[in-house]
Fold each of these.
Amino acid sequence: MTQQTRRAFLRAAVIGGGAAVGVTSGPWVLRARAQGGPVKIGLVLPYSGVYAELGNSITQAMELVFARENWTVAGRKIEIIKEDDEMAVPTGVRKTEKLIDSDKVDILTGPVHSGILMAMRDKVHNSKTILIVSNAGADAISRTRCSKWIFRTSFSNWQPCQPMGGWVAKNLTKEVFQIAPNYQAGKDDMEAFRETFHPAGGKVLGEEYPKLGETDYAPYLTKIKQSGAKAVFAFFSGTDAVNFVKQYDDFGLKASIKLTAPGFLTEPDVLPAQGKTALGIITGHFYTPQLDNPVNQRFVKEFVEKYKGKMPDGFACQGYDTAEVIVRALKAVNGNTQDKDKLVAAIAATEFDSPRGRFRFDPKTQNVIQPFIYIREVRELPGIGLTNVPIDKVADVRDPGTGCTLPA
Amino acid sequence: MSFLPDLLGQALNGLAYGALLFLLSVGLTLIFGMLDIVNLAHGSFYMLGAYAGLATLAVTGNFWLAALAAPIAVGLIGALVERGLLRPLYRRSPLDQVLLTFGLIYLFEDLIKWGWGGRIRSISPPPVFSGRVQLGGLTFPTYRLFVIGFGLLVALLLWLLIERTRLGAVIRAGVYDAEMTEALGIDVGRVFTLVFGFGAALGGLSGVIAGPIQSAYPSMGVSVLIPALVVVVVGGLGSLKGSLVGSLIIGQAETFGKAWLPGVSMLIIYAVMAIVVLARPQGLFGRPLR
């Protein structure tokens, strides 16, 4: 089913459901609710625009996990409420307020955009709403702006970047050009890379920050060429990733200047559109569908089957883990979402085998400890096509959590 | 960094970007000049062109057929839009027309999402132009050279069409004074449909031509609308020459802004627009405002 029809269906279902409740209103309804009405899970994600595919991947994997549980955990129905944040901060905040104040969700998940995460943080914290961050990597949420009520199953921006600096300096070159979109996540990523790149003797020969949603990178590519750098460390995702990678190859840079990046540059949401122009790109990421652990193999198989040949990506892995955490924590508290402290403790204690490896939260920050950051190279495999093949890995990558003192 | 290759390289980058802007904005300015409609859905025609191109490529695998089929398909859609939706609004305020074309953006975006999904797609360049050439010390993609040449060719053909043919004379007359043209026995209504369809076709063509450089996705038309409008304002509303010169100026301004003034590059094109509008409110080649 496409995005639009799914939403229309959901809307109809919600309206229909509401009407049904209205018709049968009576004392028995109140009793049913006390025994456990549905657990409401709010999703603030982009379902339109440049990053819609990310929102879709996260949602699809969550639905895969909930469907496995027949949408019922510890005797309670799971109800998800999807809100399109349009990748815009004011919209994201408004949708967050709606989910917390009107829908009274038990657990909130999302967003993709770090700006939305930072803007919704106080509302979430002050209303004591449990938020499981399923993408946005703003480092601050694991540091000075951490909260007892906020968990993150995805990554901090620092995590896929910091190990890359040392790896590039050791294995590729000590002369690098950095480029990222002109917003917080982009700057966080460049900074994290330098943390291990500089101590290993690396030198940054130049850096550029094009606007988010840039369509013509030619001026920057000319500058990269002129800088004499031997490698580029670039952070892009979505259409930016497609345009940058294609144009990087168009201008003939790929042959002489190795392109490296945090994994979002070549995730399966953009890889088909990049095609062979992506071959040889080196990225750091906590996931690739090529991982050969049994949980991942089952995940890939079920995801591909359910979504008609679509390969799961890192975003899907994040959605899977978010839903898995919710399911396991709800089971641990027997479906009781009223005692929020107990639920928070249950979430913090959740540990399981995820497609990415052993999943657990860092007690210091409530951010996921990446079992591995895989160094991956885009290759073409027979029968699979273009994919991110793990060629090296760095174990146990946890955000430093500087300035975070929980419970806060 | 050596200064000269950098300068030449960036100038070439700006030329290629400007050529794309021209292909994109010329349809917009044509429709405005003739019909007095600010067609916000022009970005949608660009997007529909890319998808029509993708559809043709999926069937035939031939870029040139895609570049031929897309403008025809989008031109027909444009003609239908003019006949069915815009025509009843001509007697209403311009705001109603703008609102309609604004609404069309969402309609077309959702139709494409419904049919194709939100996934990012990409058009491969034709094999002849898929490599790159060495120009002095520069490496430049041949496809971008083609875009520059193609943009200039389209400009020339349009100039011939508008300045040297009977149809062009009718269009120019219609732009100048629709009522008087009607009085001369010309069916202005039909010319309106033709011009709107033709403007839409140019939008569709630009979508295919931009395909190998950029990527195709349902909301792609929204992001190009602003630079296209800036070009039209700078060049002068309704002026073919203005659309060409405006595109080249904005192309260079944006490119050199990105390269040399990274901190303020996002503001450069608006600064250029503000200066032009202050000095010449009607744009570089627009008719003086009455």
Note: Chain B touches chain A through 44 residues (CB under 8 Å).
Amino acid sequence: MIKVENLTKTFGPKVAVNDVSFTVARGEVLGFLGPNGAGKSTTMRMVTGFLPPTAGRVTIGTHDMLEDPVPAKRLIGYLPESAPCYSDMTVHGFLSFAAEIRGLRGDAIKTAVHRAVEMCFLENVLHQSVDTLSKGYRHRTCFAQSIIHDPEILVMDEPTDGLDPNQKHEIRQLIKRMGEKKAIIFSTHILEEVEAVCSRAIIIDRGTVVANGTPLELKRKAPNAGAILLRVNGVAAEAVTGKLRAVDGTERVQLVKDENGTVTARVFPKSSSNGEFSKAVSVAAQGWRVEELHVEEGKLDEYFRSITASDTAKK
Amino acid sequence: MGNITTIAKRELSAYFASPVAYVFIVIFLLLTGFFTFMVGGFFERNEASLISFFLWHPWLYLFLVPAVGMRVWSEERRQGTIELLMTMPITPWQAIMGKFLASWAFLGLALALTFPVVMTVKYLGNPDLGVVAGGYIGSFLLAGAYLAITCLTSAMTRNQVVAFIISVVICLFLILAGWPPVTSILTKALPDNRWIVELVSAFSVMTHFEDFQRGVVDSRHLLFFLSVIGFSLFGTSVVLRGLRS
């Protein structure tokens, strides 16, 4: 449904997005990750036709966004980053306007507004002016606007930003449900959200795609993925690391913590096939008081940190 | 066309959702009344015409029209709703036209509400209604020209006050270029080059509004106002495109 080819955007000398390509099919939820200023919003703005790309192509359905913008935009529902709404309108007025400009007429507007209001839990504020809404309600109003015409494609820039944990949960469930029939792109800073909702994730850093895969695949690439974490009590740290180092297949041993007689160590295997290896480690640990021993799955945020450059880190 | 109507409807409802519309209409009517009857010497003229009414319109509009139009695009930019608007399945032209036509219709409504002035003349004497109609057409076009200029400046900034000030300055120039006190200075300064004076005053709304006040709807004057509107709205589309790249 969405095809992005070699998308590039420069603002003066600054390259915001550099040669980004990806596709999203129906039934897919693509999570868009990246540090602040990595080019997530700019990419989304080009996908939705708000910004024209400096180079590259965006194809929505069968329509080219540059040459055929109106039919392409018709297929998309878009929730911009700051969730802007016309603050001088009521929620009902705003949603009716959104429905009408999306080409709905008469009773179809009423049904669409009703549906969106129900999905986004806006009944209580329906006739309130957008001006007077709290941030969560305002956000959901803009969200309702993006799904008012039941679009085949949804593009959402940080859809759960500024919501309370319950609302976040609701919105995630909603995205997941809708993702079964639609093609969805959404950006987020919250990595657990990606694991909960996305069928695929892209990590973008300084305008380029640095990773693309399912959340599971990405997790496996985390530096600690496949390592064995061992916590024992009552043994000296040197004894633990020494013995573990001697285990066949160990690449290196990292001492995580040595506190009050409890030693936590991480053992990295040479190869990733570790069925044998974990057995060997548990054999080595025999005789110690083992409090914990498990194979680490890898964490998305560790992988994220390992491949994206932080502008706060000192180098 | 449907999209233009949808945009225009939203825009008009935005005017009436806030007190701006009512405040504007009341002030406009009070000022037109004040200038017509007190300053313009409507009764002293002792003639059944609306000269003293239309005479002040370029000056009244100078402040009131930018006040109406300054929010058209700058508010959209400030709130970020421009990102919604431009990702809707409409062309930028439809958005520009919808917004312009809505504000113009609003100004038309305010102008139409001055009808008691016409009734007064009608009651007191026997005015030429053709002349009155011509004056109204000219005044409406004049408001449209100012409004289009304000749309342009409004698209250039997210600050309404800046949009207001720049529009007032441009509109003031369009008045002064053909205002008799200014043209007479120019004529004295350049006695041998009358064409320069004429060229400058050809850009003035005063020159073109004058004939309307006499009831003459000349196609040249019509063309002037429509081209100011067309040029400014085209400029708006260029500015908006520039914003997005």
Note: The radius of gyration of chain A is 24 Å.
